[in-house]
Amino acid sequence: MGRKALSIDKIVKDLIFNDAVAAKKALAKKILGLAYKKGIYPASIHDFYMAAGRQEFSGFTVPAINLRSMSYDLARAIFRVAAKNNCGAFIFEIAKSEMGYTAQAPVEFVSVVLGAAIKEGYKGPVFIQADHVQVNAKKFQEDPDKELQALQDLIADAISAGFYNIDIDSSTLVDLSKTDIKKQQKNNYEVCAKLTQFIRRIEPKGITVSVGGEIGEVGHQNSTPEDLRAFMGGYREKLRKGLTGISKISIQTGTSHGGVVKADGSIAEVKLDFGTLKTLSGIAQKEFGLGGAVQHGASTLPEDMFHKFPEHNTIEVHLATGFQNMMLESQNFPADLKKKMYDWLIVNAASERKQGESDEQFFYKARKKALGPFKKDIMGLPEDTRAKIAAEIESKFDFLFKQLSSVNNRELANKYVTLKRVIVRPRKAANEVVHDGEGAD
Q: At residue 197, does pLDDT exceed 60?
């Protein structure tokens, strides 16, 4: 064939290190083309979840894993764990906020995950999710149209890149000062309906993007059946007739993102309300036909809790901070690089330090903000170093997949998930993405 083709490792690394938008997009297009040729498709989990809502299967919880750093190495580890456990239902995700502070734009994140699938010889659907596409309550209050436009721009960018799963988080707009529960949820369900309609307008032909809603902001008071019914009632009233709605609902059950940090840097024990999870998941399925309830902020929970998620009918669980912690606290992570990151935080994240906060508390909460500025340093570590760190975290992935009973469901995923090759056309107007959908090769 003449000149040897570039390895996927080289293409992915070039994409991560290249800051030029045009070059990054060209490399992303190359990776997507290679993925399609290998039988790898960015996909929506919508139909799979709706089948769960019809109670055609049950007994496991889908892991949704946020990759903040070493994304290529850790995505490879996840694909290996999925193959080992014959799992077909697992999600790669990154939140709106994480895209910023980890310097991983949608096109880069999708490309890195697909590159990992190519490297590990994976075939089939790959679920990539925009987590916490969150409304800023203050900005919404000041100028709702401007805030919604910013979210639509992000959603359009994400879908164009291959995010066919979007979690809308307008729970920040819930107004607990009102006594009427439906009025508490009003801004939440109205915005969720508007953004759902936008997604349906721009989604690729032949793909129903999985959309998630949220009724209780993580870290605040626990959700109730009344909250769920008020949200869904209002959401269905506001959603344009004939449009497909959400496939799942995120609720609050007592957790917080990243855990609550004590002065010594350890994580305070969490009292998670599994009864609320089971009750609301059942209502979501039986009354509204959704896949079920979603649990956020779970990666720092005690290990003996995870088996309870499938036992309590949780459709999806979000896992993030725990893996970041494992990477930074690994004996294989270079001490000099960690010191540089912490020194950077002392100067650049000083405003985030609360009065009376210990060094351990400050660094624990702030260190995620150093992942973007030091992304290339981390990716530039020797391959052997990254492999050792990834191997440690891979064992955690394997443990969690088993605890969540997310094993031997690959045939189910293949049964319910449609594979489509999508050709992205240039935008015709602001935040309009034009796609052509083709059948699986």
A: yes
